[in-house]
Amino acid sequence: MRVCRRATFNAAHRLFRKDWSDEKNNAVFGKCNNPNFHGHNYVLEVWIEGAIDPATGYVIDLKIVKDLIKNEITDRFDHKNLNLDCKEFLNLNPTAENIAVVCWDLLRSKLDTKYELSIKLWETENNLVEYNG
Ligand code: NI
Q1: 44: CA distance to ligand 1 center in Å?
Q2: DSSP states of the chain as a string?
């Protein structure tokens, strides 16, 4: 059985590599390399797989997942500039792929090992990534 808690956060970023020239960054990342940053309304889906606890009828109390996402993800990244404000991206290009890996690692470290964890991160209405470790 898989259950999901959804959360949203807003953040700014710029896609570029410090070790690449302006020309190469522009060629690879285009508008996403705007030096003055741009923002997204991210949607995070946290999917947890496990057995239904016969005592509660839950796989996991989604209130626990809600609090976990708040403490580990939204308090950390909401209304932040990912490149400038967040140490996780000091040397990591904040693509949706890399943000998803960072979010997964943060959540996995706090989640009971009896659960499988998968996350989906929507960067726009049309673009999303999925990661399960
Ligand atoms: Ni972007």
Answers
A1: 15
A2: -EEEEEEEEEEEE----TTS-HHHHHHHHGGGG-TT-EEEEEEEEEEEE-PPPTTTS-SS-HHHHHHHHIIIIIHHHTTEEHHHH-GGGTTS---HHHHHHHHHHHHHTTS-TTSEEEEEEESSSS-EEEE--
Entry pTM? 0.96
Domains of the chain, with CATH numbers? 2-131 (3.30.479.10)
Known catalytic residue: 13? no
123 has catalytic annotation: yes
Find the catalytic residue in 13, 88, 103, 123: 123
Rounded percentage of the chain residues whose pLDDT exceeds 70: 100
Distance 4 CA to ligand 1 centre (A): 25
